[in-house]
Amino acid sequence: MSDKKNNTENGENSGLNNGSDGVWEQIRQSGAVTPEGGKHCIHCLTVIGQIEGHGVLPPDTKTTKYEHVIPQLVAVEQDPKIEGMLIVLNTVGGDVEAGLALAEMISGMSKPTVSLVLGGGHSIGVPLAVSAKCSFIVPSATMTVHPVRTTGLVLGVPQTLNYFERMQKRITDFVVTNSNITEERFSGFMMNTDELTTDMGTVLDGKMAVECGLIDKIGSLSDVIGELYSMIEKA
To answer: Of 56, 60, 73, 221, which residue is most buried, by most CB within 10 angstroms?
Structure first.
């Protein structure tokens, strides 16, 4: 076994990698990369598929495992060579507590952070999108806002309803605090019964997400990189 493979398995490539081979190995292992050839050194974190948390999803399901993302966030915050972070999202949502935990960690980072919603940033992907210091969405992307829900056995007792209400309050408070949308409007989107045929909620396209204050700007990759570079230079 090569030294390079040993280093990857031991987690020693969580920061910067030297050379193109190290960059591609980092992408293959974690779906993230810290390229060194740009104007500034930034870390690119991808959140795709379903966010896997306390339960393990089937092997044929594309997932982002939160136990893999948390060490990346710690490494980015501590590595002095990394000047900022780009979060690219195309997720259907997933484990609520795992997604909210990642969003809280991103929100609490001291370095410049910018998010970009591609394809979709649904469900618990909404808090993740707004957790960055500046958020972008492409015009063709969508975001589904709906209440907390679950499948499987649910105990029909008042405590269960109280738990869901408190969980929803945590998500709503986080989104409102980290974006420009009001609590009333966000709650209205969640409780809308006129749009989704088998559920309640609202689907927002890129323009609508910006107009309501949920996302900061419409833009593409070049816009996001430019914004992140500007934030780094002003820091």
So the answer is: 73
Domains of the chain in start order, with CATH, are 1-30 (no CATH), 41-234 (3.90.226.10)
User: What's the pTM value of the predicted model, to 2 decimals?
Assistant: 0.82
Amino acid at 162: N
Report d(CA 54, CA 96) in Å as an integer.
Answer: 10
Q: Which of 30, 115, 123, 131 is catalytic?
A: 123
Burial 45-76 (b: 16+ CB within 10 A, else e): bbbbbbbbbeeebeeeeebbbbeebeebbebb
pLDDT digits (tens, 9 = 90+) for 157-201: 676 667 778 889 999 999 999 999 999 999 999 999 988 867 889
Per residue in 18-46, pLDDT (tens digit) is 444 554 465 555 567 787 778 999 999 99
**Integer Cα distance of 202 and 235 in angstroms:** 36
Q: Is position 146 annotated as part of the catalytic site?
A: yes
Catalytic-labelled residue, pool 14, 30, 146, 179: 146
Q: What is the DSSP letter of 58?
A: P
State both tokens at 149: 């829900």
| 40 in active site | no
| Three-state SS sequence of 72-100 | HHHHHHHCCCCCEEEEEEEEEEECHHHHH
Q: Do 131 and 178 meet the contact criterion of CB atoms below 8 Å apart?
A: yes
